[in-house]
Amino acid sequence: MLNIARPFGDLDRPVDVETEREVTRWLHLEARLLDAERYQEWIDTMIAPDIRYWMPDMDTRRRDDPRGTFRHGESAYFDDSWHELSVRVRRYNEPSAWADNPATRHAHLISNIEVHATDDDGVYAVFSAFTNVRNRNEADQDIVHGRREDVLRRSDGRLKLVRRRIFIVQNILLSKNLNTFF
């Protein structure tokens, strides 16, 4: 079982080129599904049932503060299981989801991809940077930059997302809502 607080341990084991390419293609497909708001397909085909999708609230503290910028168990924008993600996905399809009607236009840009082997066969630690651009109506636009630490696990021949830690660079998120996935 992976340690949630430190799921990767000490990494210095890059994977072979073929595996790196497979993971990179997986990330690009995920971005395309999220851009097209194909959330049900995303959760059904790419998300593991034991997912932990976590985006902590980042605090600005001095470098010498032993608490760091975030802590597990403290404030978070997301700390979701598969059930909570599926509730969000279902909500997006409801007529009462006024924040999504008219549709939001998304662009998920993924870069700086690193793929490492873990101690578990078929489990990969994946690091990436992202830019998430959302535009609604005529003037509502949000741009969120950050980095992700993912754990992907091969299951029945397919890669599935098991853990996602999302760290945004903004200290204060100025978006009117968070009707997106990162």
Automatic annotation (TrEMBL):
<keyword id="KW-0223">Dioxygenase</keyword>
<keyword id="KW-0560">Oxidoreductase</keyword>
<dbReference type="InterPro" id="IPR000391">
    <property type="entry name" value="Rng_hydr_dOase-bsu"/>
</dbReference>
<protein>
    <submittedName>
        <fullName>3-phenylpropionate dioxygenase</fullName>
    </submittedName>
</protein>
<dbReference type="GO" id="GO:0051213">
    <property type="term" value="F:dioxygenase activity"/>
</dbReference>
<dbReference type="InterPro" id="IPR032710">
    <property type="entry name" value="NTF2-like_dom_sf"/>
</dbReference>
<dbReference type="GO" id="GO:0019380">
    <property type="term" value="P:3-phenylpropionate catabolic process"/>
</dbReference>
<comment type="similarity">
    <text>Belongs to the bacterial ring-hydroxylating dioxygenase beta subunit family.</text>
</comment>
<dbReference type="Pfam" id="PF00866">
    <property type="entry name" value="Ring_hydroxyl_B"/>
</dbReference>
